[in-house]
Every structure is written in C-alpha cells, then in structure tokens.
Amino acid sequence: MLRYTLQRLLLMIPTLIGVAVLVFFMLRIVPGDVVEVKLRGDGGSVSQEVIDMERKRLGLDKPILAQFGDWMVGLATLDLGKSMWTDRPVTEEIAIRLELSLQVAIMATIFAVLIAIPLGTTSALMRGTWVDYAVRIITIGGLSIPSFWFGMLIMMFLLGFYNWLPPITFTPLYVDPVANLTQLVWPAMAVGYRYCAVVARMIRSSLLEVLNEDYIRTARAKGVFEKVVISRHALRNALLPAITVIGIEFAFLIGGLVVTEQVFNLNGIGKLFVQSVSRNDFTLIQGMVMLIAVFYVVINLVVDLLYAVFDPRIRYSS
Amino acid sequence: MSVVTTTAPVIAPTVHPRGAMMEFARQQPLGTVSLVIIIIMMFAGIFSEWVSPYDPFHIDFASLLAPPSWEHWCGTDAFGRDILSRVIHGSRTALVIGFTSSFVGSTIGAVIGVASAYFGGKLDDWIQRFMDILLAFPIIVLALVVVAALRGAIVYGIDINLITAIAIPIVPRVARVVRAAALSIRVMPYVDAARAAGYSHSRIIFRHMTPNVVAPYLIMFTAFIAQAILAEASLSFLGLGVTEPTPAWGLMLSGNAADFYREAPWMILFPGIAISLAVFAFNLFGDSLRDYLDPRFKV
After folding, report:
1. Which of B20, B133, B145, B236 is the Cys-Cys partner for A18 at CB 3.0 to 4.6 Å?
2. Runs of H (alpha helix) within A173-281
3. CA distances, A89 to each of A61, A86, A283, B148 (Å)
C-alpha cells in the first residue's frame, strides 16, 4: 500500500510537467500579451518605447525557450513567479482568495452529499414509479441549469421576497460565522445543485446494480429486515462509486466557481482566473492552471486510497 | 477513475428508420419529448427571421424595460429590444456553436480513440498520457485557457476561437470512451482477417472499426452538444465568448443585466430558461439514446 502510494506520487510528476509545458506553449501560440492590454487596453496611445520597456521588465522580450526555461526552473523550486498585472507573487494572489473559494466548495460538497444520498436512494428503490421520474427530471435539471443563472435566481428571490442581498465583503468564518455564512451559503447552493444531481444519479445507478447482487438475495433469504438490507448491505457498497464522483466533482468545482463567483461578486479564485484570462496575465494563468492540476491529481489519489480503505476487497499492489 | 463502462461494442438495432423512430418513441417517452423540444429549437434557430415578432437589434426607446405583455411576450431589455426575438435569434447562436463544437470535438476524439486502440503500444500510451493531462481540467477552465491563447482569430464572422475553445475539452472525453469501445473491436476475428488480407491501416480503421463505434460516438456527440451550449453560455456570460450585439443567451445575462433584478426580472428569467431548456433537452435525449442503443445500460 505504501509502495503503491509512493509510486502514484511519483507518477504525478510527469503529468504535472505535461500540464506545465502545455499551458506555457498554448498561451504563446498567438501574439499578444499583458502589456498591450495593460497599456493600450483602454485605447490610450502609448509609445512603442514604453511598451518595449515594460516587456523587457516583465521578461517578455526574451526568446520563448528562455522564458520556458525560467518557468520550468521556477516550478522546480516551487516559485510561480509574479503576476504580470499586479507585480505581486502569484502564490500570494492565489492564497488571499483560496480561503473563500475553498469554503464555498466544501459547503457545496456537504450540501450536495446530504441531499444526494436520500434522493438517489429513494429514486433507486422506487424505480419506475413517478417518484423515480420526478427525481430523474430534478437531477437532469441540475445538469442543465447553469449554476450562474441559478445563482441569479437566488439573488432575485432574496431581493424580491426579503428585500435583502448577501453582503459583498468576505468575513472569515472564525471572525464572524453569521456574516460569513449569510454570504457564502448562496453560492454554495448555486454550485451545489449540479453537484448534488451528479452524485444522486451515480448513487441511483450503483444502488440498482448492487441490489442485483447475490449477497443481497442471500440477506433477504435469511430474513434480514429490508431496511437493514438497504442501509447495511446495499447502500454501503453502492456509496463506493459515489466517492469517486464526489472526489472528481469536488476537484472540478472550480469550473462552477469560475462563473458563479461573478454573479455573487465574490473575490475568489474563479474570479481571479477570469480576470487573469481577460488581462492576458500569463504567469497568473499558468499558476492557477498548475494549482487546479495539482488539486485534481491529489484528489484522484486520495479517492483511490479511500477506496481501499472502504472496500477491503481492494488492495493495490505495485 | 472513470465511470464509463463501455467495454463491448454497442450494436445499434438494425430496423427500418421509420420503425426505429416509432420504437424509440415507444421505449423512451422522455427522450421523445426532448427530441420535440430540440426540433422546435432548431426550427426557431433556422427560421429566426420569420418566427421572431421583432428585429432583435431594433432599439426602441419608447419601451425600455417593458414588462411582458401581448406586444412583447417576454418584455424588453434596457435598450427596448424585444427579449423573445433575442431569445429566438439566440437559439441560432447556441445551436450553431453547440453543434459545430461538439461535432468537431467528438469527431477528432473518436478518430484519436480508434487510432489509439488500433495501434496500441507506445503510441497508445503517449496518447493516453496526453488525454489524461487534458482531462485534469473542467471543460470551462480548459476553454478559458484556449480563449486566452487564441485571442482575436475571428474568421468569416464565425467565432472560430470560441468553437475551438469549446471543442478541445470535448476531445479527450470522447477519445477515452471510444477507445474503450474500439479496444474490444480490435480483437474481433474480422479485424484479424482484414489485417491478414493485407488491408491498409486506414482502411481497417475507417471501414472495419469506425462503423462499430458509431453508437457510442452518437451518444457522446448528443450529450456534448448540451455541454457545449452550456460552455458557450458561460463564456459569453463572462464576456469572453460571443460579443455584442449578436444575440446570445449567456450574453443577455451578462453585463448590467444584474442591475435589473428588481425592475426587470424578465431580462434574467427568459434567457436562462432558454439555456436550461436547451441543455436539458440534449442531456435527456443523449440519456435516452444511450438507453435505447445500448440495452446493457437499461435498468
């Protein structure tokens, strides 16, 4: 097990290097950089010398391969460089926003899992009835309703019925839990709906599969109460595949946050990402892409290891 | 890691087309409803000029932010433009971008998947590695990076950029599923026979293997139209997709639309319903198509 974990950790390195190479060259396929957006973006006429000077300062005048070398060396020493727009270290820009986004993501996960388990289970147990159809429509709705629009509906609802909008400034949870939660509960709901739908669908289909297993028939034949069969024998095993989905969706929540943070005017990583894209802030984009990639591979590993913990039949060997 | 379990070739029932349609309608009532929604939307998209009551670009200062009425069924926006007409024209934008990007992405993905399965070995390993890298990103994040990379390449009035940005994240997702399906076909005796007969690689790939992965391809293609429409709406909402004055659903929700939560909720309501309905229809249709084409998934 330990060997397997170490091996997996080592395997992450080529993947992450691949991501680093890919994002670096993708951003440089087409000419155009942060300097133009920064100095000429609002139509101001700035002389070529100033532009060249700024390029030189940011190191954008160097040959591509030299820039690439700097980027890789920086990565190897865990230095993501400075934002080309604000001149502050990329890690700092990310760090000040991470807390907010992470909290929304965790809240969305709790919200999604709490609702998805009963929803998916009921749907599977009442398969083919109107309840099942209703759940199917609700869950496909979750996959279809854009989270940013759902967020707008929430805002409209709050404004229309309570004449109130969530606060805009972020207060950490440990400073003022009430202010914190009244701000972040809504975006968590907005991104959580889709999350919940994905998990509920997974639970439904895996529960249906498990219910066909021999050991369920055995349990029933022994006269075990149906409730116990479902909760102890079936659901326990059916939750395993759901763990994978929960993990991957958690890693992918950043996708939902990118758009939803705009709606709620949250200063999180999603918003930072969109800003850095529209500003052509290459170093910041690169840094965030690396962050998302690391997050994804680590969560994948954690999920695989959890699998072995929850299901003793699975033992990884190298 | 993946939840897709397509390991055996999916064989489409060989029935007469009309019979197949009837059979589909009988087996998949929800799928049929979604198909009807899709057809209505395509009709609205193709004949927008004739179907919509007003010119979507016409600015009418006499009726700014007019609530829904008999004159303007869905109300008007901050420029007095008719929202229903803009939603109808927006369906063209959404469908064109949705179809093309899903088609481009799924087709490239399918070719890569089949080739990867057919050649196997080192090439397969490298392709899979590369696909894994692309899979580490949510569709919208990868699309945003591509948008950042390809800034400013609008060709013939169609935003090639946007289509590329949405198509690229689709490629690895389709490639993975198609590869799994193709792997099981590669070991079929008829592929061995074709190889023994000395047929070229491309002939075996395109004539012998590709037809057998059509079912998973179609399922993925439909499902990804939904994802592509969603991605387009999100990018346009962020101001990085379709640009003004082109009517697009995501764009209608962006910018200062949020200032009118109270005064003009219809500005938010109708474009959002349009996006949700479109994505819903394609998702449901893709789901039903899968159930119909692959009886093993039926529960």
Report:
1. B133
2. 177-210, 214-221, 226-228, 235-263, 269-278
3. 20, 9, 9, 21
> Are the beta carbons of A257 and A269 closer than 8 angstroms?
yes
Contacts with A63 (C-beta within 8 Å, 6 or more apart), sequence order? none
* CATH number of this structure's domain A95-278, picked from the four choices 1.10.1040.10, 2.40.50.100, 1.10.3720.10, 1.20.1250.20: 1.10.3720.10
Could you tell me the pTM of the whole model? 0.87
Which residue intervals of B47-159 are DSSP H helices?
Answer: 48-51, 83-119, 121-135, 139-150
- How far apart (Å, rounded) are the C-alpha atoms in residues B133 and A22? 9
Which regions of chain A are under pLDDT 70?
30, 40-44, 315-318
Report phi then psi at A66, rounded to 5.
-65, -45
d(CA A5, CA A11): 10
In A233-254, which positions are buried (b, 16+ CB within 10 angstroms) versus exposed (e)? bbbebbbebbbbbbbbbbbbbb
Q: Do residues B102 and B224 lie in contact, with contact meaning Cβ atoms separated by under 8 Å?
A: yes
Q: Is the distance from CB of B23 to CB of B13 less than 8 angstroms?
A: yes
Tokens of A189: 């709901």
Q: Give the type of residue at A2.
A: L
In this prediction, residue B179 carries a pLDDT of 92
Task: Select from A155, A277, A306 the residue whose CB has the most chain B CBs within 10 Å, as the one to mutate to test that interface.
Answer: A277
Give pLDDT < 70 ranges for chain B. 1-17, 151-158, 294-299
Structure tokens, B238? 């962020």
Q: Which chain B residues have a beta carbon less than 8 Å from that of A277?
A: 144-145, 147-148, 240
ipTM value, please give it: 0.86
- The pair of structure tokens assigned to B228 is 């592509």
Among residues A68, A36, A27, the alpha carbon closest in space to that of A54 is found at: A36
DSSP one-letter code for A83 = -
Ranges for all domains in chain A classified under CATH 1.10.3720.10: 95-278
The dihedral sign for the CA sequence A308, A312, A313, A318: positive
B153, B240, B276 member nearest A144 (Cβ): B276
